Amino acid sequence: MKLRANLIIGGALFALAILVGVLAPWLAHTDPVMDANLMNAEEPPSWTWWFGTDDQGRDIYSRVVYGAQVSLTVGIVSQLINSVIGVALGLSAGYWGGWWDDVVNALTNVMLAIPSLIFALAIMSVLGPGLTSLLIALGLTNWSFTCRIARASALSLRSQGYVQAATVLGYGDLRIMMTQLLPNMLGPIVVIATLGMGSAVLSEAALSFIGLGVRPPFPSWGSMLSDARDQITTAPWLSVFPGLAIFLTVLGLNLLGDGLRDILDPQSRSRRT
Amino acid sequence: MHEPKSKSGEARGNDDLILSVEDLAVHFPVGGGLLGGNRRVLRAVDGVDLELKRGECLGLVGESGSGKSTVALSILGLLAPTRGRIVLDGQVVTSRPAVDRKALARIVQIVFQDPYASLNPRQTVRRTLEDPLRVHGVASKSEIEDRVATMLRHVGLRPEQAGRYPHEFSGGQRQRIGIARALILNPKIVICDEPVSALDVSIRAQIINLLLELKDTLGLSYIMISHDLGVVEHMSDRVAVMYLGRIVENGDWREIFERPAHPYTQALISAIPDPLHHAPLATTGGDLPNPLNPPNGCAFSPRCRYAEDVCRHEPGPALETRPDGHAVRCWRSEEIAGRMASTSTESAHP
Amino acid sequence: MTGAPLIEVEDLRIDIGDGRSRVAAAEGVSFRIDRGETFGLVGESGCGKSITALALIGLLRPPLSIGSGVIRFDGHEIQHLSAAAQRDLRGNRIAMIFQEPMTALNPVSPVGRQIAEMFVLHKGKSWREANKLAVEALASVRVPAPERRVNDYPHQLSGGMRQRVMIAIALACGPDLLIADEPTTALDVTVQAEIIELMRNLCAERGTAILMISHDLGLVANVCRRVAVMYAGRIVEERGSTDIFRAPSHPYTKGLVDSLPRLGSRAALGRSRLKEIAGVVPAIANFPDGCRFNPRCASATDICRSVVPTADFLEAGGLVRCHHHA
Prior knowledge:
Chain A has helices at about 5-20, 25, 60-95, 100-115, 115-125, 130-140, 145-160, 160-170, 175-210, 220-230, 235-265.
């Protein structure tokens, strides 16, 4: 048996990130916002300050730990919104076809034509910065790929015998979509969702970096990077540790996505014998 | 739920009939599109009449593209007919603007060809059989469990196996599950669409026996769609032969197999290899014509060895029913009917 | 049995899987085919008939491999030939046609070119000559208007026409052996009859031997002179084709012959219950011990459950692998 290294490493990294976020109050050494002390400003990493301190003397380690809450909330919640929208539109379009399919297709094409980060930027500029706006902006702009996959799966599953059988048995459309189609397309959807979470974490960082994300002083990995911009040569630890956190989380999600694709791919399941 | 009133209102005198298909036509537009282009019409089914009596099995025979599956899909309400009407158990199901799928589901069901693709891989057998009952308003848990267990025993499976997923079963067992699903709502008609052709050869007899047994114990009527004439002959009471969207011959099974009157039926029968004789197979010549561009005259005329001028220029005649119920659509059936009989009787009578 | 056989298979074993988890998908397979002879290999899915054919033509790919045994073609052992030598043999002297011609033909190349390629590859012809020969080859498989059809792509042809093209490609270089793996399973009966007749006539004219592989015992018995029935990786019976249907000797063969509704049998015997073969076809991973048919066999005894039966010669000619054969 081939060792599924990507699945294990990816899962471990993602689980670690979630654990850190959930256990932040216990893991953090200091309060990430309140414990500013200019006496300790810009301390390099040491036994006291594991990741060093920033220009206001706040503990970077504690801020990275708390930052996980924001980054993962954005990653998971916004991708969840994307998945629900994408599956609802794609599944119904593929199953019903007709004018609804045309509408969904047109919408998907529009979404694909506009870079999603630009679109999110536009929404953010209307809603103003903040966690909620971030969730809405990223949740509404990244469903097109999920939608495409859901639609394609629905189209091919629709002609399967068991879907026809359900129709003949008098099932309603909604029931057919939920019980016959959805469970059988979940594999690729989950894979996309995992990869999408990674890119949502990156988008959060990007939006926070340009000041549209979570309002300071509450830490998010992106806003920490943004703050560290000016001191990148004098105090590199300010950017290295949040950067590393983003890197490891996104890497973990991508590995997890790849690993899931390997085991969920219907091609690798044996059909007969 | 349908009211009994409509039942008596629509009854057509002959109480024996559980299904009648009258002048059914299903046409599909092909090509064309937004920019025009040449839009053509595919006449998948073009004026088909069929009758199925209670407790009987009607064999529907024909090659791919003959329209037999389209007929089945129309009866199941999965395809809207272009023309004609379908009367199921006394109710006209084609006259309503929208088919009442639930009511239809309790009358007619289908057993699919491929037992691998026709079961939801993510549902246990129990779920596959319980869900339809719930959809149709059976609420009592004990009744549901009871009916599922009874049905599993009917098809030769053990109720303990209900918790398993389809991939844990062999092809033959999967087909038994497919049959159980078709019967769980107590339908009156079951359409068997090539029910054994995807199965291993040594398993087929089990399923054929099971289908025949269930037909008798549950009082079912079958429409048996198959290209395997041996299976059709074994199971059917009446047989209808389709060619290019039309019925070319229809009659009692014995008539069809012993005295086939249409040249196409004869060609089908004589194309079956005889295992006991190392003899050449009878060939017909040519492929099925393109249904988008059917030949002039009788549709079989380009491949028919008896074709004359009339066959090539006049459209095929109406399906003419003889007093014995044997119906043929052929200009020359009178002359031809005898020819085949002389060659086929030797194998029919030992 | 005079003269050297064209192909001789001795105690062939085909493995599936890699080093640690290796199982025999077929074993003890032995048969011979003479020049110009028609030989059938019949069995259900997973019985090993198709992989046996692939072994003959050198197309086994991992996880399948030849475990042991000898394949002798025209007197030479070919089971360990180099890839290049196998390629040269393939197409040139052993050719094969498959069940689904659509997947066996290259969808983006005109059929004429695909036939011509055989002449260029194996006979060293120029493309110009080869194209001419391709038209002749298409004409020989009775494709109407061959000079126009050579430019068609596979999707423009019907299933029957595609199978004709496959036959034209297979017979292009005048092979000594044509392997036909379920050649008509995807086709309608009237088209099947034509393809079978075409194959039979062309091979008879050219002296090409046929190895036909099918699940349809009736069809194989009609086409071939001798038939071997495979079950769960072993040949259980090998007989003359009429004998095998009239007086099958192995319980499995007997079961198959009796279980199928045959045209005319209802009129003759009435609609009786078909004789079933109980149980299910075993999967490769758990073939039973002893005779592999024993769990489904009505006359199985203790010896059947423990000892693998040897192949016994029958007085009437042929071989059977059963402890209790008739």
